[in-house]
Design a protein that fits this description.
- It is a single chain.
- The chain has about 110 residues and is of the alpha+beta class.
- It has one domain: Alpha-Beta Plaits, CATH 3.30.70.
- It is about 30% helix and about 25% strand.
- The chain has 3 helices and 4 strands, in the order H-E-H-E-E-H-E.
- Strands 2-3-1-4 form a 4-stranded antiparallel sheet, covered by helices on one side.
- Strand 2 and strand 3 form a beta hairpin.
- The radius of gyration is 14 Å and the shape is globular.
- The mean pLDDT is about 85.
- This is DUF493 domain-containing protein.
Length: about 110
Amino acid sequence: MDLSKLPLSKLPLSKLQEKTPDAPKIEFPCDDYMIKVMGDNCIEFRALVVEVLQQFDERISETSFRENPSKNGRFTSLTVRMRIEQEADLATLDRQLKASPMVKMVL
């Protein structure tokens, strides 16, 4: 698959990092890694994000997130700081989140 034709929102996190070579290098494990997930504004979206992220940081709960709904209320973004053990975990959680049609973007 030619990744150069994909929109940035569909690129794996590892490829996004390659596109920004001047970005600071992250040392793993990282206790304060910020993840933002944007998707449909519904209870199922929040539950999915919690379920996926808890696989990587058991401290994650429904109350761990800062939520920001869109103007029209159709979408919402969930932002959380969490522990990531290794870089490979980022690719895995990115893939798991993007597998759902409710998830529109992962940053």
